[in-house]
Write a structure and sequence with these properties.
By secondary structure, the chain is mainly α. The chain has helices at 3-10, 20-33, 37-49, 66-71, 99-102, 110-122, 128-144, 172-185, 190-206, 213-216, 225-244, 257-286; strands at residues 162-165, 168-171. It is built from 12 helices and 2 strands. Keywords: Disulfide bond, Endonuclease, Glycoprotein, Hydrolase, Metal-binding, Nuclease, Signal.
Length: 311
């Protein structure tokens, strides 16, 4: 969709927070590096027109965690179920996602939320706040769906698995959301965001992720959103049996260092997947990209002006 078309159409995080603050911002920041230039301008225009915006030049990084805060506000409680899909499988023996079985909450789940808000962006409302809200949801949910415990019902997505992390009581879900990310990739600040984004972008362009990108985008058609989001959930849920819940956890015992060491590469790869898919998704909705493609508009330096990010 061309920039002028959009303007005309517009009339001009906790134990349930997948990836936490830094993870979601990194998903968005990785995507930002691969957006077509006109798409970046369009997204800025949409977010700047949002009546809730307080920044002069907002980017998708600035709003990457908005959906978590909104879901815990009185007016946003109806969106809590949109952040996950409860796969009622049998880990670690069997992992699978069945949309008709697992997406039964009021209003749906992360799969149907992605499809719904994608459609709202393809056919935008003249209400600028509604269109901005749809964009904020899409940015966030494409991150949520790559967090393994957001695709699993067992023990409430790991919230019922009590462990210790650095000697303190913690829930396995929370350790995946924020604990391990903070341990390895640093604090939720501009330096951590910059460093982690550069690491992932380099792997996508020149490293171990380069050959994997076509597989990550094997289903990435915005007009087939339910099917693609379901496939992404299946891809993520497979990690539950392959690794996440393969370990036997003893109540309130320290999480083994070997578990952390093996989890870190998985976390980074999943965040990279989210960024790549988000870039492809937004380039199709607002640009000229075709399904399965990843724009190579990455600049010599990061596009994001880090000083504009709210931490």
């Amino acid at each position: 969709m061309l920039f002028s078309t959009v303007v005309a159409a517009l009339g001009l995080a906790s134990s349930a927070h997948a990836w936490g603050q830094l993870g979601h911002k990194t998903v968005a920041n990785v995507a930002l590096q691969f957006l077509q230039p006109g798409v970046r301008d369009t997204l800025t225009a949409i977010l700047a027109a949002d009546g809730h915006n307080r920044l002069p030049n907002p980017s998708i990084v600035d709003v990457a965690t908005w959906a978590d805060g909104f879901s815990h506000s009185p007016e946003g409680t109806w969106t809590k179920g949109f952040h996950y899909i409860d796969a009622k499988d049998d880990p670690p023996l069997r992992c699978d996602v069945d949309l008709s079985r697992d997406c039964r909450g009021p209003g749906g789940c992360v799969v149907t939320a992605i499809a719904n808000y994608t459609d709202q962006l393809i056919h935008p409302s003249r209400n600028v706040d509604e269109t901005a809200q749809a964009l904020k949801f899409v940015v966030h949910f494409l991150g949520d769906i790559t967090q393994p415990l957001h695709t699993e019902n067992f023990m409430h997505g790991g919230n019922g698995i009590n462990v210790k992390w650095h000697g303190k009581k913690a829930k396995l879900h929370g350790v995946w959301d924020t604990g391990m990310i903070a341990e390895f990739f640093g604090s939720d600040n501009a330096t951590g965001l910059d460093s982690w984004t550069k690491r992932i972008v380099n792997e996508i362009k020149n490293g171990s992720y380069k050959d994997a990108v076509p597989e990550w985008l094997s289903c990435s058609d915005i007009n087939d959103a339910v099917n693609c989001a379901t496939q992404w959930a299946v891809d993520t849920n497979k990690l539950i049996c392959d690794f996440v819940l393969k370990t036997t956890f003893h109540k309130n015992e320290e999480l083994p260092k070997s578990y952390y060491d093996d989890a870190i590469p998985i976390i980074q790869r999943q965040v990279a997947k989210g960024g790549v898919r988000l870039a492809s998704w937004l380039n199709q909705i607002f640009g000229t990209a075709e399904p399965g493609s990843l724009s190579l508009y990455e600049q010599d330096r990061l596009v994001l002006q880090l000083s504009e990010v709210e931490f």
